[in-house]
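Lecture notes, unit on binding sites. The following record was shown on slide 14. It pairs a sequence with iron/sulfur cluster.
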Amino acid sequence: MIPEKRENCGLFGIYGGADAVEKTYFGLHSLQHRGQESAGIASSDGDVIQCYTGMGRVSRVFRSGSGPLEKLANPIVIGHVRYSTTGSSEVLNSQPVLCEYSRGQVAVAHNGNLVNAALLRDEYEAYGSIFKSTSDTEVIIHLLAKPTHVGKPDPLAHILNHLQGAYSLLFLFPDRIEAARDPFGIRPLCLGQTEKGCYVVASESCAFDTIGAKLIREVEPGEIVTLDKEGVHSRFFVKPGTVTPAHCTFELVYFAKQNSIISGENVHEFRKKLGRRLAIEHPADADVVIPVPDSGTSAAIGYSEQSKIPFDMGFVRSHYIGRTFISPEQKTRELEVKLKLAVVRETVAGKRIVVVDDSIVRGTTTKGKIRTLRQAGAKEIHMRVSCPPIRYPCFYGVDFPTKEELLANNRDLQQIREFLEVDSVGYMSLEGLLSCANLPAKNYCTACWNGRYRIPVDTTVSKFALERYQLRMFEDQSRADE
Ligand code: SF4
């Protein structure tokens, strides 16, 4: 029920205001669901950039009233929360990445995954370049610093055309922020404005809600948006309309926060639509509909509305241990799951239950939760999933397990039902999923369900492809468990 998939990263940037760093701090808090392994903020006073990063959540890295936030109190700020999709969970891979090159300083924050990172790094290393991290983000800085690129009329637009894969990027130069989104628009990125007129960018609009800013629009695929002292400027590094977008459908199904607007629609409303459609595609004769909180809740409400079966809370989630599966080690994940969901016996005992979840990845966690429902006295359990069976890994910034580990790989529905030990199982069809979305079906990536990768990928490359020599750097571990 708690899916074995992990977020990618979250970005936040703001130009102007005496409280820009505080707004970044709170903006990152609201994006914490996108990554909890590390957090960082880089800020500029107009001349010099400073950067502070650390392992763990925002509240740990930037403890209230602590020194880093005071030192970073400048008006031009970007921030990042990370889950590792390329490179391991190490402090050396935390972001923003701050560097100096021939044109001065730049700090970069990245959400996504470059599918040509290893190739580009090979090229640079062959000519003697040195890398200090094992993530794909540093490759972008090397591209920016390359002498033949520096001299181009628009170096940033030029180098973005060398990147392949999923990327929403924030570049902090001493005098401005440049926000870019890949030509397919795979990862989200949006533009907003605070009550005082300062412009902000973020992975999700939920970050704007937190700081009292309003959403202006989403950054377009292939667009660079500049925030500087004159306001906002836009340019395209890929001619609009020449690439059909491939927005990540999984952002809508699972990753994004319910109050965010993604691809022009509210995430909660979209998930309720999925639930209603799921009830039509896979009805069940049952007494109660329960969600797997929190990501299954909206779809369960929709399922209940459509089926007229009462909605209730069969699981209670502990909010004190963070979002499950955010830690990389399997042991930690298993422990987190046990701690995370408690069954409400009174809701499920003696009842025929529809359990609604957003997705199933490995299935081992789902199976464990089904068992706890049986132990609590559930009479029948009908599993309903608001997306199709996941059969393929993601190479665009979402960390699914390998193909072999996916529950739906080489298993038909009957075998999945038997594995989960449920009375019935029903997955949303891909057609049904896309019919609920705001944009035409062709504008969404669906590779994890049908294996159609819009950007060609090398399926043999692992997320640790850039870790050739066990480069490691540790921070003060005495604070790691706080
Ligand atoms: S493969 Fe799946 S998770 Fe990855 S970008 Fe495409 S829709 Fe999103």
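Take-home: Residues 118 and 316 are 43 Å apart (CA to CA).
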